[in-house]
Amino acid sequence: MSRRQPRDLSGHLIWFDAEFTTLDLERARLMQVAVMVTDSGLRPVGPPKPLVMDIRLPPRCVVSPWVRRHLADRLKAGRGPAAVPVETADRRLAAELRRRLGPIPASIERRPVLAGNSIHTDRWLVRKFLPRFHRCLHYRQLDVSSLKFEWRRLCPEFDFEKADRALLRRYWSEEWEWGHGRHDAAFDIAASAAELAFYRARLLRRRVAPPSPWKGADA
């Protein structure tokens, strides 16, 4: 009798975004997080509406002038009664993945993949503040910003503009409230999924055959 193979979730994408108090990551604190799950075809797994939480801010955390000027509402929410402790957010995020995907595999290579724009920055903060959530993730990640650089090199006359909601809905048509605009975590994860769909259609649509085995110069 053959042993059952462990479930492989590495084809699933964990779309994640965090808003935080400063680009100085050593001193940054989370203000807001959002997560949603899709399969490799960008189809939502479970409810398409993301889990979004405002994170309770410490009284004397470092806040950059840019954040004070542009994200005053996020700061206010982080000091409001609905904000949750970061430890609570960590537990809820890990539980949300299990609710949508089932048990998380013990093998890191079979876990779902973190995805988003400039996701390395978010992952740095995830590792620091959200360890339970981090332990649910694959060791690799999908950074949409890498494709953005390649697109701008090949087609500098057209940029994928996240402020264009008609463009976003064309490539991500799920029917839920998009959030309040850029630098709102719920908006940013959906916009990142739409942007990946755009690059897949415009940049990655050509199928390439695998290369022949390299025989070396002396073959």
Describe the model.
- There is one protein chain.
- The protein has 219 residues and is α/β, with parallel strands linked by helices.
- It has one domain: Ribonuclease H-like superfamily/Ribonuclease H (Nucleotidyltransferase, domain 5, 2-Layer Sandwich), CATH 3.30.420.
- 37% of the residues lie in helices and 13% in strands.
- The protein has helices at residues 65-70, 72-78, 86-101, 119-129, 131-134, 144-154, 165-171, 185-202; strands spanning 13-20, 30-38, 51-54, 113-116, 141-143.
- A five-stranded mixed β-sheet has the order 3-2-1-4-5, with helices on both faces.
- Helix 6 (144-154) crosses helix 8 (185-202) and helix 7 (165-171) crosses helix 8.
- The chain starts with 12 loop residues before the first strand and ends in a 17-residue tail after the last helix.
- The relative contact order is 0.17.
Helices, strands, pairings?
Elements lengths: L12 E8 L9 E9 L12 E4 L10 H6 L1 H7 L7 H16 L11 E4 L2 H11 L1 H4 L6 E3 H11 L10 H7 L13 H18 L17
Parallel strand pairs: 1-4, 4-5
Antiparallel strand pairs: 1-2, 2-3
Helix pairs in contact: 6-8, 7-8
Provide a concise account of the structure shown.
This protein is of the alpha/beta class and 219 residues long.
Under the CATH scheme, the architecture is: 2-Layer Sandwich
List the helices and strands in order: EEEHHHEHHEHHH
Helix content: 25-40%
**CATH-assigned fold name:** Nucleotidyltransferase, domain 5
Global outline:
globular
Q: What is the CATH domain class?
A: Alpha Beta
Number of domains: 1
Low-confidence stretches: none
Query: Structural class of the helix and strand makeup?
Result: alpha/beta
Task: Give a quick account of the main beta sheet: strands, pairing sense, barrel closure.
Answer: 5 strands, mixed
Beta-strand content estimate: 5-15%
Radius of gyration: 19 Å
Mean pLDDT: 88
Count all strands and give the number. 5
Task: Identify the strand order in the major beta sheet.
Answer: 3-2-1-4-5
N-to-C CA distance: 45 Å
Please count the helical segments.
Answer: 8
State the CATH superfamily name. Answer: Ribonuclease H-like superfamily/Ribonuclease H
